[in-house]
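User: Please run a holo structure prediction.
Assistant: Happy to. Please share the sequence and the ligand.
User: Here you go; the ligand is zinc ion.
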Amino acid sequence: MRNSDDIWAKVEAHEADYIRLANQVFDTPEVAYTEVKSCVAHLAQLQAEGARITQNLAGIPTAVMGEWGQGGPVIAILGEYDALPALGQVPGVAEPQPLGYAGHGCGHNLLGSAALLAAVALRDWLAETGTAGRVRYYGCPAEEGGAAKAFMVRAGMFEDVDAAITWHPGDYTGLMAPLALANMRIDFTFYGRAAHAAGSPELGRSALDAVELMNVGVNYMREHMPDDARVHYAYLDAGGEAPNVVQSKATVRQLIRSRDNKGLRDLVARVRKIGDGAALMTETRVEAKVVSAVSSMLSSPVLERVMEAQIVAIGAPVFDGADREFAAKIRATLTPEHIEDTFYRVGRAVDLGLPLADFVVPLAEQRPAGSGSTDVADVSWAVPTVQAWVTTCALGTPFHSWQLTAQGKSPAAHKGMTHAAKIMAATGRDLFARPDILAEAKAEHATKLAREPYVCPLPPEVMPPIPR
Ligand SMILES: [Zn+2]
């Protein structure tokens, strides 16, 4: 395999354009399926880089793909650019200064920019070495609760792809453990009968009672589900403001998570029964509507070895005194629990005063304390997929926090972004250069799928919730 230096230099050659892109996306924060400005910014960059462009992927207006190269295998680099509601925050200050609108509290402004930068470096490498192969950048919207990649997989957007590579901004550097919970959001709407709550309560059938009984039922189920399963809920419609009216319609959203896809199907069946039971008890009628769903992550040990070797080769990003000074100020706003949590996750005795992780955490040492869900997981069932964590923020910074938004335009974040692009580009380069490794990854993936075929968790009638 070639020395990594040439691919790192190809990343560095384009770095300035992508810092600009990351900052532009940071300044136009848009939540799931409304990422119009962010998508246009990525589209304009793809055009500037001479990509063959496909817009409106899977019928989603804010999903875009650009491709370079000819023939050979297809390597996909996955990017995201969606923001989170209410996490708008003045960047570069170490105190809460909310802006009152959405913000990049998960660093996706960096995520998409680094992915596109890696793809451009690979384009240059393919051209310079005359290697047959195509590199694609997938601009994926709505990672936060929108399951866009699951819709994109369902629409066949990865059918001719050989492998997928991505990353996520984080507070340390290392291969990302291939763990993510499968999940499904289901809205249970109960229909009862309105009545005067004092004058003729016997005529009323309360949809709100049904919602409450459903939650009681789920609470009793909690003791009897696998330890790593989760069920969360939110009242979308409590039936109205008037307690003297028997509420005739009420909706609760249940978010059900499980370690694996089969576990999710089993748990969803139980939650549906609880909904039916609540309707039976209250003589109401229930309608259950799936809103979104994603799979659990399928590991790719072959790709993980390739990427981890590249992470070891490059090490952690190198930060300077000013980076550490700002990170230390951010760190001063975190609770001891946040800092202890980091200590646990990285599986080693880090200096609790260390503001920015200057080390790589081997996958074998990581102890993911808990796990969320991501739609990258659905791509992992379509093609072998691998992801890295790269340091962009102070050690202990929680995701989806004002502290993370505050660091979204910092020099440390930009250093981490370029670093991530180098890791992804070097991983892609290894796969283009070594068809035997790519074939091994695909064979391993096929074996896993033969054991457990992929079932798209989205019912066929469920479409992306694109605002019209
Ligand atoms: Zn994220």
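The chain is about 40% helix and 15% strand.
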